[in-house]
Amino acid sequence: MSQVDFDYSYTASGDSNINVNVRSPYTVATELSMADGSQGSAVISWDPTTRDRQIRFDFGLKNVKTSSLTDRALNFKTAVLRRTVGFAVGYKVTSDRLTSHGELHWDSDTQPDFVYDFAASRTSAQRQQTYDGSLRVSSYLINTDSTFSHRIISDRRFVTEIVLDLVEKLTIRSDLNLAASTAVTHRISIQHPRLSRVRVIFVTFGCCFGGHIRNAQNAIDQSTCETVLCAACVTNSLYRH
Known about the structure:
16 strands; elongated
């Protein structure tokens, strides 16, 4: 009949710590510690004399919510046979700002193999509201540092700009004007270092017979390549054919 031989210890003052050592019928040592009630680690070892026969876990949870701030985060990481596997993700929210961070570990290196950082904010100045955002991704497969901006100039005009930076920057700009005197216009421009600038103007109301296209063309910057479309004329053309 086999016997169980073990001992344990527990510490409650300061950081909580539990140690369990089993000597029979097999040898295993376990240590669990918690700091501040949110971050902890656990180590299971089959041979205390070497790190090659042990598994380590690190984990944490944050959940803070007040009237002005929400801060939540979760992380988990384990090291097995010199390989680190784990993740971390979290976000913070205030009345005018949102941020988020995440990372993924899957290698012998202690540095994460995938990281993203996202931020968005809202500001108001001179009767204009602006929403700005950024996304940064770093990994073996993709690296980008992109931005987003949306401005509410008035109740009837909205300007949006997106910059996608994948080795080279691609800029997409949208200008929606619902308060134009002759016609409602939506200007979309795309710019890339390897391409000429392209601007497409959609006239969603009005008619070319009133000179809207001619007026729009006179306003075009001659240094850019632009296409002008009138929704009314396109519709009439489709019905005629």
